[in-house]
UniProtKB/TrEMBL annotation:
This is Uncharacterized protein. InterPro entries: PNPase/RNase_PH_dom_sf. It comes from the Eukaryota. The lineage of its organism: Eukaryota, Fungi, Dikarya, Basidiomycota, Agaricomycotina.
Length: 87
């Protein structure tokens, strides 16, 4: 783990058609927008502003095993029960 935030820039090779090596192993954060009883991914900016709760899930992808949940954070007012998360 990195103890502090790090900012860096990646060279842009998009125009030449090169993709960055190792991208399959990069961590991914998925935002689940929760507006009970519904929840949805890929919110527009208007939907995101109108959604009271957001559940952030951070995954890593080790090369020789299943994806692993590395972190979870609930943003917004209120609470979310485990039974609601399982739905």
């Amino acid at each position: 783990q990195i103890p502090t935030a790090t900012d860096f820039e990646l060279p842009d090779y998009w125009d030449e058609g090169e993709v960055l090596q190792g991208r399959e192993a990069w961590p991914v954060c998925v935002t689940l927008n929760i507006d009970l009883p519904a929840s949805y991914l890929d919110a527009t900016s208007v939907e995101e502003a109108a959604t009271p709760l957001k559940l952030l899930l951070m995954f890593s992808f080790p090369p020789s095993s299943e994806p692993q949940l590395q972190g979870m954070r609930l943003l917004g007012p209120g609470e979310l029960q485990l039974a609601q998360m399982k739905q």
